[in-house]
Amino acid sequence: MTESRDELAHLDAVSALRAFRSLELSPVELLDAVVGRAERVNSGINAFTETLHEEARAEAERAAEAYVRAARSQEPTPPLLGIPLATKEKHNLAGRRIEQGLATHAGRVADADHPVVERIRQAGGVIHARTTTPEFSCATVTHSAMWGVTRNPWNLDATPGGSSGGAGAALAAGMTTLATASDIAGSTRVPAGFTGTVGYKAPYGRIPGLPPLGGDWYRGDGPMGRTVADTALLASVMSGRHPADHTSWGPQGVPIALPEDPVAALRGVRVGLSVRLGDFPVDPEVEAATLDVVVRLEKAGAVVVPVELPWTSDQVMRTIFAHFGQILGPAMEQESGDVETLAPYAQRFIADARRQAERTSLVESLALDAAMQRDLATAMADVDVLICPTNAVTALDADGDYLDGIDLGGHHHGHYWEAHLTSPFNVANRCPVLSVPSGAAGNGVPTGVQVVGHPFDEEPVFRVAAGIEALVPRAPWPALGR
């Protein structure tokens, strides 16, 4: 292949696999491009907690040999064979540190692979790095005392989002080809929206997690990529029943069907539109980018239907923090050993969760969940998918704690998570949701839209997302150290 090394570092996985099979490209060449790119630009971004380059190169060399053998025998190869992949630090790698940014976990080592890591290895993926998160993955910015500040490649003053901020930053910067993520209030979709990448929150249980917190019905592990097709590929590898997670379901390794002509496939599709999901204060630039997507969908033959939701951002915050106060907040207190050792944003999260749990019992929090789920089901009754912005704002500060909330739409809001429209779909966590790029704001930071499906119905979400991807012009990836 004739691409420059930086173009090669940004090559999508599906194209790379095609080139591997035809022997036009070696997995070693792609890994070297990705690693070389990271060596040139990561110092300004800080997306990795550690690198595994020596082990990864040995795996890439074995993959290259396997492709030569397969070309002779015409035998199939594993679905990710030779693809460079970075895992979120919280996804255990056997024999490697698993610290989650917590001082009390410093030096702790995992004794087994996380289920998604196990499946990536089985599929031939080459794990070459691990990505940064905020402490205990509890923030939508990515910085910690342990790992420092992770910055957005599109605008270094801005965060790539969180908690999978390192994953989004690494993808946008060309420092990996695929990445793992997780999502309990938007931790996959928020960074996808801010970094011009694609992030998928699968229906609860579709991708196996790790007990005991894998039993939290708001959360889920998932894939991130630079394209819808890449994200679908990694989702198919990660998904399906696994003995470690009794909530996991469905077949494993079944490809998610994407249309050959994604724009033509939009004809007649009924797309619900909600710019604000009730009363979320959405920045005018974000709204404009979302409405531009709508115009493009309508020109392609989709039927766009305005959808009204009765939610308020206060209601959403009360609902999710009542839930977090029963599970995640106590787990963080237990794991930290001493809350005062945590980052200010983590302390604030625990305090908010504890306060809401004192006001709202578990049974009452289930009723709050059910009310939002009923509203969403009613709103989506006559549409195939729903679209809305991913983030309500054009950026958050890279090193911000936002302890005093945030000013949005001319008003002060008590919690900065009101800057994202993601958490309602963790309340409705049986719904598949993809975040795909919708454009960019004046500050250079990308904007994104979420494509939300009916419970457990994944294929329409990927089909519509692929259409949006084909319709919305993409800017060149950030130049950085070129």
Describe this structure in words.
- Belongs to the amidase family.
- It comes from Saccharopolyspora oryzae.
- The protein has 482 residues and is α/β, with parallel strands linked by helices.
- The chain has one domain (5-471): Alpha-Beta Complex (Amidase signature (AS) enzymes).
- It has 15 helices and 15 strands.
- It is globular, with a radius of gyration of 21 Å.
- The model has no long low-confidence stretch (mean pLDDT 96).
Radius of gyration: 21 Å
Structural class: alpha/beta
Major β-sheet, in short? 11 strands, mixed
* Oligomer class: single chain
Neighbour order of strands in the largest sheet: 1-3-2-6-8-7-14-15-11-9-10
The CATH architecture can be named as: Alpha-Beta Complex
Percentage of β-strand residues: 5-15%
Total strands: the figure is: 15
Poorly predicted runs of 5 or more residues: none
Give the % helix.
25-40%
Order of helices and strands: HHHEHEHEEEHEHEEHEHEHHHHEEEHEEH
Distance between the termini: 19 Å
CATH T-level fold name = Amidase signature (AS) enzymes
**Mean of pLDDT:** 96
Q: Count of DSSP helices?
A: 15
CATH class: Alpha Beta
Domain Amidase: 29-461
Family: Belongs to the amidase family.
Protein name: Amidase
Give the topology, please.
Elements: H1 5-9, H2 13-21, H3 27-41, E1 48-51, H4 53-73, E2 84-88, H5 115-122, E3 126-131, E4 143-144, E5 148-149, H6 165-172, E6 178-183, H7 189-195, E7 198-201, E8 220-225, H8 228-238, E9 270-273, H9 284-299, E10 303-306, H10 313-324, H11 328-336, H12 344-359, H13 362-379, E11 385-389, E12 406-408, E13 411-413, H14 424-427, E14 433-440, E15 446-453, H15 459-471
Helix pairs in contact: 3-4, 6-7, 10-12, 10-13, 11-12
Pfam families: Amidase
InterPro entries: Amidase, Amidase_dom, AS_sf
Protein name: Amidase
